[in-house]
Write a structure and sequence with these properties.
CATH topology of the largest domain: Immunoglobulin-like
Largest sheet: 8 strands, mixed
CATH architecture of the largest domain: Sandwich
Number of domains: 4
Structural class: alpha+beta
Shape: globular
Helix content: 40-55%
Radius of gyration: 28 Å
Length: 881
């Protein structure tokens, strides 16, 4: 293990910056090997600070010159230590001029200014700007920027930065320049530049106030035919934000730029959003329905940041969910509204709940557990997590559940009125919601400060004499690192009561009528809610629409779950009843498999699945989701000691039995949900493809000559990537004799489409037959590289996280492989390496034999020389907690 201890940053230690920056002028002479960066900062002493002197952050920079108020500073006038430049004596008003050198071509971290495929790009969130020039690189320092870019015109004909283009022209020696001004104050993490050979699709879009805005989507030549959907999603986002929240685009232009080397999905730099190509490029030949949905959501997300993140930003990085949780909620609402139907909204909600269960709940129960607003960190990049994003979005959603849609809008309006162009805290958002609606939300703060997933325990008691139903709700929350004891949360619990006919009973609780659903507010450790006028013993439907991110414990019988699965008017709880039925059986099958007992699946469950499958009154997308079994990861979360091989065998057995017993119905639904004609990514068509392809997957789980022929035919005749991938996955997972030829054909057809080749690697990495030896073989393929995050994720991450039975091979080969790759990636890109390192968070939950091998792998990484702070923090917490 490394001997030096990385510094831990604590929220409680926040102090305001000693100096504020009013204006920033930046000049770039762009060259891949040596880029010259000149900056001029106008600064003033912050009256709210007691600190003396100026602190500027810089990383991997060569300082050429430093002047203060026109005078050159010499060594002794300033000091550089631990990537901080300190000027101890400075007047109240300062103009600081700085010249630095940086080498973008050598920057494999993709943080700061770097080169991808011969073009210049930037990524400055969270702390990338300090890799460009010395600066008070913190989100509460907001300034107006003017940027001059100079570069070779032939190599880099397109020069872009934030805001509005005010001047451009040619320079001697074949160079040219562009000058950009951003009229709004922003923190340094929102700075961006692009210097590249690109082409663009552009449109003029009329805003609701009558102004015309220029919209541009910039891509590399050859990809222009894949930009239509991103452009349409941008236009839809702009219009939706105008109509839903009264928020308008505040610039004359809005640009999206796609780059293939990018650590994140996208970045909301003011007016110049830089995107991973994965979330821009799409046509029916190369993109699946999931890709299209991802593009819509991410384009919406980054555009919505223009207000929730840019105009109002974070005081410090502990407040990250202030912008990310809120903006995830906004993009979720946008995507649901774009579908436009109740069933469509329900399906998007089900997908959100599945993500929470599969990714966020495990994080809450692991060594990296942290509150939505963390109290400390070593490396902020490690806290771009599902807790900050997805759980943060659930916290925002609970405001809307408690206050109603109109009340939530009132809170948003007050938030912007109070805090436009300010850097604020999560508490400021909560205060706006409370004040706008006259509500006391003091206890609600615990959702921000307490880690862990609350457990909601419920019990019901019906009194036929008094026609009452008493629902007792109790809450608790497991201990998490640094937080052994938790106080009660403020939990909105949406409840309905179903009668014997499956219909909602009218609700009266506390003397107030609620219609079919009542939102109960649990604020104590335990409370009793009494429903009156209940004329028959009901089946309670608890936590409708997943009204809070909690684990629900209620002693449902199989008959009650079947009743809910067949009739609940709330689609999320209807789906949830099916998941509970499946999970109970998966756990029993896993236990049987672990002990070598006979595995059996009851007819009752199969019949319930059949009814959902053939119910034409239900949306096809809902039926697909209802038929999808809990993942192996979700099953593991329910076990005290995880046995990955037993879980895999149990789930495969269940899939095979469903395929065998429902074979005729699956074939019928396959035929009934064909989508002939030109491809469309609309929700109805996508739902039909989803149901058809899950039918194919179940048929292939019980392979015979007919299912194999069906998969081969679909692969050969598919008119879109969704069907092509589904057929290929079916062939691979069923170990069809035609799988190898299909994989070869797929690669040959798409070898020049990087995003499709990512799919090619990912499908193989997650296949049940892929072991470590095969993954190593795939790494030797000429198309594989660790330097591209998308490619690394497609193979390494899909194997470690998407193929648990093989990754957790009893011989420990998966762990040895993991250690090698984490260390190799750390030398290139610590952010990506740290994400891979998270694959071993939960090592203590496995059998002693697996634990011993996992610990050895963790210790091997911990002992690596020059390990980054990113990976060190993850490994240290895994070994310590």
């Amino acid at each position: 293990m490394r001997t030096d201890t990385p510094q831990t940053i604590y929220r409680k230690d926040y102090t305001p910056p000693a100096y504020l920056v009013d204006t920033v002028e930046l000049g770039f002479d762009l060259d891949p090997e040596t880029t010259i960066v000149a900056s001029r900062l106008t600064m003033r002493r912050n009256p709210d600070s007691t600190e003396a002197g100026i602190e500027l952050y810089g990383q991997n920079l060569k300082l050429v010159a430093l002047r203060m108020n026109g005078a050159t500073l010499r060594e002794g006038d300033y000091r550089i230590s631990s990537n901080v430049l300190r000027i101890s004596k400075a007047p109240d008003q300062v103009t600081l001029e700085i010249e630095t050198l940086t080498s973008p071509a050598q920057n494999t971290t993709l943080n700061g200014l770097y080169v991808s495929n011969g073009n210049f790009f930037t990524q400055c969130e969270a702390e990338g700007f300090r890799c460009i020039t010395y600066f008070p690189d913190r989100p509460d320092v907001m300034a107006k920027y003017t940027v001059m870019l100079r570069a070779d015109k032939q190599k880099y004909p397109v020069l872009l930065s934030n805001g509005n283009l005010v001047e451009a022209g040619d320079l001697p020696d074949g160079r040219h320049y562009a000058k950009w001004e951003d009229p709004f104050k922003k923190p340094s993490y929102l700075f961006a530049l692009v210097a590249a050979r690109l082409v663009c699709q552009e449109e003029t879009f009329k805003l609701m106030d009558g102004r015309d805005a220029l919209l541009q989507v910039w891509v590399e030549d050859g990809n222009l035919d894949k930009t239509d959907y991103a452009m349409q999603s941008l236009k839809n986002s702009i219009r939706w934000d105008e109509e839903r929240f009264g928020l308008e685009l505040d610039l004359d232009r809005f640009m999206i730029v796609a780059v293939s080397d990018f650590n994140m999905g996208a970045m909301e730099n003011k007016g110049l959003n830089i995107f991973n190509t994965k979330f821009v490029l799409a046509n029916s030949r190369v993109a699946t329905d999931v890709d299209y949905a991802g593009i819509e959501a991410v384009v919406g997300h980054e555009y919505f940041h223009n207000w929730t993140g840019n105009r109002v930003t974070c005081r410090d990085w502990f407040q990250l969910s202030l912008k990310e949780g809120l903006t995830v909620f906004r993009d979720q609402e946008f995507s649901a509204d774009m579908i436009g139907t109740d069933s469509g909204r329900a399906v998007t909600r089900i997908e959100q709940v599945r993500t929470l269960r599969q990714a966020q709940f495990p994080e809450d129960a692991g060594p990296m557990a942290h509150p939505v607003r963390p109290d400390s960190f070593v490396e902020i990049n490690n806290f771009y997590t599902v807790t900050v994003y997805e759980k943060g979005a659930e916290v925002v959603r609970m405001y809307q559940t408690l206050l109603g849609r109109d009340g939530f809008r009132k809170g948003m309006d007050l938030y912007f009125k109070r805090h436009d162009e300010q850097a604020v805290e999560c508490d400021d958002f909560r205060a706006a919601m409370a004040d706008a609606n006259g509500r006391d939300l003091a206890q609600f703060e615990r959702w921000y400060s307490q880690a862990g997933t609350p457990v909601l325990t419920a019990s019901g008691k019906y009194d036929a004499r008094w026609l009452t139903f008493e629902l007792t709700l109790s809450q608790s929350c497991p201990a998490t690192p640094g937080q052994p004891d938790k106080l009660p949360f403020h939990i909105p619990v949406a409840v309905g009561l179903l009668g014997a006919d499956g219909k909602d009973l009218p609700l009266t609780v506390g003397g107030k009528q609620h219609g079919g659903t009542a939102v109960l507010e649990l604020t104590e450790a335990s409370q009793v809610f009494r429903f009156t006028g209940v004329k028959e013993e009901p089946t309670p439907s608890i936590l409708r629409d997943f009204s809070a991110p909690v684990v629900l414990n209620y002693p449902y019988t199989d008959d009650e779950l079947l009743h809910l699965f067949s009739h609940d008017s709330d689609p999320v709880n209807r789906w949830e009843a099916g998941q509970r039925l499946a999970m109970e059986r998966l756990l029993k099958l896993t236990a049987a498999s672990a002990h070598g007992s006979k595995q059996e699946l009851d007819d009752t469950f199969i019949e319930a699945m059949r009814k959902i499958l053939v119910d034409e009154s239900l949306d096809a997308a809902f039926r697909e989701n209802a038929l999808l079994l809990p993942s192996e990861t979700m099953v593991a979360e329910q076990m005290e000691v995880v046995d990955p091989q037993a879980i895999h065998r149990a789930r495969q057995f269940m899939r095979r039995v469903i395929g065998e017993r429902l074979r005729a119905d699956l074939h019928a639904q396959y035929d009934a949900n064909l989508t002939p004609g030109d491809y469309s990514p609309d929700a109805i068509s996508a739902g039909k493809r989803g149901l058809k392809n899950i039918a194919l997957a179940y048929l292939s789980a019980a392979p015979d000559e007919h299912s194999d022929a069906l998969a081969r035919r679909q692969f050969d005749e598919a008119g879109n990537m969704t069907d092509r991938v589904a057929a290929l996955v079916s062939l691979i997972h069923s170990e069809s004799a035609g799988a190898a030829l299909a994989l070869e054909k797929f690669y040959d057809e798409f070898d020049n489409e990087a995003l499709v080749i990512d799919k090619w690697f990912a499908m193989q990495a997650a296949a049940p037959g892929t072991d470590v030896a095969m993954v190593r073989s795939l790494m030797r393929h000429p198309a594989f590289t660790l330097k591209n995050p998308n490619r690394a994720r497609s193979l390494l991450f899909n194997f470690a996280n998407g193929n648990p039975a093989q990754f957790h091979a009893p011989d420990g080969s998966g762990y040895a492989y993991w250690a090698e790759q984490v260390m190799a990636l750390d030398k290139l890109n610590p952010q990506v390496a740290a994400r891979l390192a998270r694959s071993m968070d939960r090592w203590r939950r496995y059998s002693p034999a697996l634990q011993a091998q996992m610990k050895t792998a963790l210790q091997k990484v911990a002992g690596a020389p020059k390990l980054s702070n990113d990976v060190t923090e993850v490994i240290t917490k895994a070994l310590s907690n």
